[in-house]
Amino acid sequence: MLKLGGFAVSNYYNKVKVALLEKGVPFEEEFRMTSQESEMLQRSPMGKVPYLGVGGQHLCESQVICEYLEDQYPQTPLYPKDALERARVRELITVMELHLELVARRLYPQAFFGGTASDETKTQVEKDLAKGVRAFKQLARFSPFVAGASLSLADCAAGVHLPLVSMASKIVYGRDALEDCLQVKPYLKMLNERPAFKKMNDDRKAATEAMAAARAKKA
Ligand SMILES: N[C@@H](CCC(=O)N[C@@H](CS)C(=O)NCC(=O)O)C(=O)O
Fold first, then answer.
1. How remote is the CA of residue 31 from the centroid of ligand 1, in Å?
2. Which end of the chain is more exposed for a tag (fewer CB within 10 A), N or C?
């Protein structure tokens, strides 16, 4: 049985989890926090989550894991058949991850963990996010899925990354960086009505509450 390593608050973990759920591939969840301990580094060389346990071996990097799942479990595909359309899905995932999520991630310490971002960071992130949002608006189709008529891996990525980009920018700047992209909210609502996305989000909420309670107990 496949083992998905990580924790249900992580957006990259949830990207893979929702892909597994949508594809109907059985898996077990192996709870692991990010760590630089050797036990974790053997599973995930950067100490990041998620990783996937496959018959005693491990794969890291969410996109690599998703590509493996597509190759190994082609039933219920999350890529279109046409090569250019497949590239469009990858293009959207790359833009969302490199130019939205990774940029907004620099705000997470202030937005979610009681830290502070420097004025320099805030100014740079605001500029970079604006470019990422522009690129995303240009590429996203919302017809009704983000890359076209069928559900794809781009939706698995969008469903976990876009809410974080919105939340972090709203908390730090008082303005949702995606607010001009009017299709995002109804699109996310539509995604979250799917059983796989609903389960992933219900588990995420429960895990977030459990983490907050554990932190409060420690303090
Ligand atoms: N490119 C990686 C990103 C994964 C990632 O950044 N995961 C976060 C949790 S959401 C993490 O492990 N952070 C700990 C760290 O960066 O050391 C992927 O797609 O799997």
1. 15
2. C
| CA distance linking residue 145 with residue 127, whole number of Å | 27
52: β partners: 4, 59
Is the CB of residue 101 below 6 angstroms from any atom belonging to ligand 1? no
CB of residue 47 inside a 6 A radius of ligand 1: yes
DSSP string spanning 123-147? HHHHHHHHHHHHHHHHH---SSBTT
Q: Is 48 in the pocket of ligand 1 (CB under 6 A)?
A: yes
Q: Which of 11, 12, 32 to mutate to test the pocket of ligand 1 (most atoms within 8 A of CB)?
A: 12
Tell me the domains of the chain and their CATH numbers.
2-72 (3.40.30.10), 83-218 (1.20.1050.10)
Nearest-angstrom CA–CA distance, 148 and 65 = 23
Which atom of ligand 1 has the smallest separation from the CA of 105? 6
- Among 31, 25, 42, residue whose Cα is nearest residue 5: 31
The pTM score is: 0.97
The response to whether residue 34 sits with its C-beta less than 6 Å from ligand 1 reads yes
Give the model confidence (pLDDT) of 5-34 as tens digits: 999 999 999 999 999 999 999 999 999 999
At 215, is the pLDDT very low, low, confident or very high (cuts 50, 70, 90)? Answer: confident
CA angle 15, 46, 113 (to 5 degrees): 65
Neighbouring C-beta atoms of residue 22, cutoff 10 Å: 20
What average pLDDT score do residues 77-89 get? 98
Beta partners for residue 2, in sequence order: 27
Ligand 1 and 35: CB distance under 6 A: no
